[in-house]
Amino acid sequence: xxxxxxxxxxxxxxxxxxxxxxxxxxxxxxxxxxxxxxxxxxxxxxxxxxxxxxxxxxxxxxxxxxxxxxxxxxxxxxxxxxxxxxxxxxxxxxxxxxxxxxxxxxxxxxxxxxxxxxxxxxxxxxxxxxxxxxxxxxxxxxxxxxxxxxxxxxxxxxxxxxxxxxxxxxxxxxxxxxxxxxxxxxxxxxxxxxxxxxxxxxxxxxxxxxxxxxxxxxxxxxxxxxxxxxxxxxxxxxxxxxxxxxxxxx
Length: 250
Description:
The protein has eight helices and seven strands, in the order βαβαβαβαβαβαααβ. It is α/β, with parallel strands linked by helices.
């Protein structure tokens, strides 16, 4: 990674996205944040400093995504590091989940990731940029929670999209990986954090007996984005405190 690298982090206004931006910025990349939250993303860029730039974008809208890349390339330069982090869960009863709600999650978490990844890759290929793309998956790509069926489906899709795009882009020296967090101390976990019984359930399935800090996810993303992971592509690394490997006998 060089000081000329431009890193785009979607969903970068807070939580894991902002932590990814902080971690990647330590390596000297210029940070570009995109988020649907206008005030939040501008505040985040100002907090990061060092030339960080904010763009408002609905990452579920392919037209806005395309316009985002056009604007970045016009105003700043070509993206060589992409973190597809924007996502939503929308929990609810499985039998009561509407098709509109299901599509809302898929449109952002999976379709938005595909559109962003493809658009970034097109420029990387055209400009012969040795790029690195990191998608945000989840342990729910492999395990499931019935109240977030659409989220589980979307993150399973992200895992497979990561593999397929890594194979497609390897001849162009573009690496594509994913990170699958477990329970992380973010806004998405706020309801669980406030519920002792829910937290007890989470801890019963977490060998390290704590939830992660966003920085712990951001650091893994930064590693995958860097040249230190130069021979890693098509992988999903789970940052879950040991949960994925836990047998019921433990």
